[in-house]
């Protein structure tokens, strides 16, 4: 009786093993799909960034500094009329001695001192940019450059750009899977490879605001790029 039981158990094990092998053989092979996709979102600028300062030249360092401080005092007072104090920062302060080439003595000679004091300024009411430039110019600012537009908070737009990029990646993966005779692809991994947020950058486009001024740029663009990996199974045909 014991031998018969052992024999039946062995037969069952062999049958189970055969079924397992058969199932493995029938399973469809899978393959990986890797795609790169981009997502873009246009946003309306709500801030401007520019660099404003003054350069003074004098025979002595003390004279140059006194003249510079006089103009800077006027500029800082004007800045506070147009923006918040925490977004006005010194970006450059240089004091250096100038030299000139003396052709008679064939050497460089001292030629006074120069001071450059430049501020980085952010403005959050765009219609005030032009009046600010007019006023600081009248106050003696002789360094004005780098006017750029941006957004204060790009998080919501960035999330939309991600959504667009993922959708584009899924569409690419589905097209590739279908072309290869595979099933609907399943996302396995996702990685951001590039992000561009226009904190201080603008590109041309249509009008963007009811408060548009001559200095208003077109809409700004936030862009992301992702790399996505999908898995698909080949469709088994009888």
What does the model show?
- The protein has 238 residues and is of the alpha+beta class.
- The chain has two domains: 28-44 and 154-233, Protein of unknown function (DUF541), domain 1 (Translation Initiation Factor IF3), CATH 3.30.110.170; 47-101 and 108-149, Protein of unknown function (DUF541), domain 2 (Alpha-Beta Plaits).
- The chain has four helices and seven strands; from the N terminus they run αββαββαβαββ.
- It has helices spanning 2-26, 61-82, 129-138, 155-179; strands at 30-43, 47-58, 88-102, 107-123, 143-150, 186-196, 220-233.
- The strands form two sheets. A four-stranded antiparallel β-sheet has the order 3-4-2-5, with helices on one face.
- α2 packs antiparallel against α3.
- It is elongated and about 95 Å long.
- The relative contact order is 0.23.
- Mean pLDDT is 82; it is low at 2-25 and 200-218.
């Amino acid at each position: 009786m014991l031998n018969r039981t052992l024999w039946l158990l062995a037969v069952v094990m062999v049958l189970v093993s055969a079924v397992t092998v058969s199932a493995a053989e029938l399973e469809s092979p899978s393959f990986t799909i890797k795609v790169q996709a981009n997502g873009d979102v246009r946003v309306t600028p709500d801030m401007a960034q520019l660099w404003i300062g003054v350069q003074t030249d004098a025979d002595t360092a003390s004279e140059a500094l006194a003249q510079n401080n006089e103009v800077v005092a006027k500029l800082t007072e004007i800045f506070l009329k147009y923006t918040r104090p925490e977004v006005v920062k010194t970006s450059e302060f240089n004091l250096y001695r100038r030299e000139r080439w003396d052709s008679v003595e064939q050497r460089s000679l001292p030629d006074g001192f120069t001071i450059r004091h430049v501020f980085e300024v952010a403005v959050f009411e765009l219609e005030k940019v032009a009046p600010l430039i007019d006023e600081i110019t009248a106050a003696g600012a002789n360094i004005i450059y780098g006017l750029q537009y941006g957004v204060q908070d790009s998080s919501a737009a960035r999330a939309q750009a991600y959504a667009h990029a993922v959708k584009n990646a899924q569409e690419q993966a589905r097209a590739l899977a279908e072309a290869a005779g595979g099933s609907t692809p399943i996302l396995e991994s996702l990685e951001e490879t590039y992000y561009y947020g226009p904190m201080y950058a603008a590109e041309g486009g249509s009008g963007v605001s009811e408060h548009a001024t001559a200095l208003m740029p077109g809409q700004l663009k936030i862009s992301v790029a992702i790399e996505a990996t999908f898995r698909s199974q080949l469709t088994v045909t009888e």
